[in-house]
Specification:
Length: 334
């Protein structure tokens, strides 16, 4: 989380948010949040998650566009965490600050389940993960928000993509060059309605909960309009970034990706030719994650997982080393 956002937050802001959603102020615990402040509480005895986002990262309009999409998914049978309304019957509440910025508060139902770890990645979980993503993409094809201002931005409108120089040190111009090359390559892909729409953009095990049968997706704040196959690449990236003991990244990808693709195809078509774009989207995610670390993490005193991700990452990106050393992606076609 950026230091200015941390410094802007206070107990008074939390109390305003709790009151706005009628949350129990005596049943409150803070959760880990990389970009937001997260708290667990309850509304009339129902477990709830309160999220506060600073306007430097997400405007109120962006949060409302996220919730519009989430409610659409829920209405059409997708398993997602739905938002509660506030005492004023609003999905979001704005808490202004003296400097003209603000926090947007939103409250979600708490989902029952676990955040699975590598040892939990059996065929059933991977298959359901793929199917859940496929269903979301199938529904995205038909999604139209109620208002034009609730449209989600496109992938190349995110600030890390448009202005990476704001976050990277000046000597990392090669990273920016590699990003520009990837952007040009991606923009050459055909934009067709059946294969382009809103993606989750961050579906890893801490953004869904698993109850042994199904997964329920949470945290759609980074969802953007992009090619659906990129969401598959993002999940594969996040599955393999730290493979279980005894596996290389490539070995683990070969083990799990067939079940993931099979699950996906139970809900959504995936023409075989799109599989060959996965290495491009894997590298795009790797660079995006790298830039996000400079934007939101404390790299002078990094958390262990941040340090582990960043180790050797600059050299891999600058030398254009593939994220996964695999070819013949058509092997995953059914």
């Amino acid at each position: 989380m950026e230091k200015n956002v941390k410094n802007a937050f206070s107990t008074a802001i939390l109390q305003q948010a709790l009151s706005a959603f009628n949350l129990n102020p005596y049943h409150i615990s803070e959760l880990d949040g990389f970009e937001n402040f997260l708290f667990e509480s309850e509304i009339n005895g129902l477990p709830a998650i309160l999220r506060l986002s600073h306007s430097s990262k997400k405007t109120r309009q962006m949060v409302e566009s996220e919730l519009s999409y989430v409610n659409y998914l829920a209405k059409h049978g997708a398993h997602v965490a739905t938002p509660f309304k506030s005492k004023q019957q609003q999905l979001t509440e704005l808490i202004p600050l003296n400097d003209g910025t603000y926090f947007t508060a939103v409250c979600f139902q708490k989902v029952i389940g676990i955040h699975p770890r590598g040892q939990d990645f059996d065929d059933h979980l991977i298959h359901v993960w793929g199917a859940s993503l496929g269903k979301m993409h199938r529904l995205s094809v038909s999604y139209q928000p109620d208002r034009e201002d609730l449209q989600r931005i496109h992938w190349d409108e995110e600030v890390e993509v448009t202005h990476p120089e704001r976050f990277l040190p000046p000597d990392q111009f090669t990273i920016i060059k590699q990003l520009e090359i990837l952007k040009m390559r991606i923009r050459e892909l055909p934009v067709v309605k059946s294969q382009y729409g809103i993606i989750h953009n961050d579906l890893h095990p801490y953004n869904f909960l698993y109850d042994g049968e199904k997964i329920t997706m949470i945290d759609f704040e980074d969802c953007v309009q992009m090619w659906f196959v990129s969401d598959l690449a993002i999940s594969l990236f996040l599955m393999t970034v730290w493979p279980p003991d005894g596996y290389s990244q490539e070995e683990f990808a070969l083990k799990i990706f067939p079940s993931f693709i099979a699950g996906y195809k139970t809900e959504k078509d995936l023409p075989d030719e799109w599989l060959e774009t996965i290495p491009t989207f894997l590298k795009f995610r790797e660079i995006g994650q790298y830039i996000a670390m400079y934007r939101g993490a404390d790299l002078d005193n990094p958390e262990p997982w941040v340090a582990r991700f960043m180790e050797g990452r600059r050299e891999r990106i600058e030398n254009n080393i593939p994220y996964l050393n695999l070819d013949n992606w058509s092997r995953f076609a059914s």
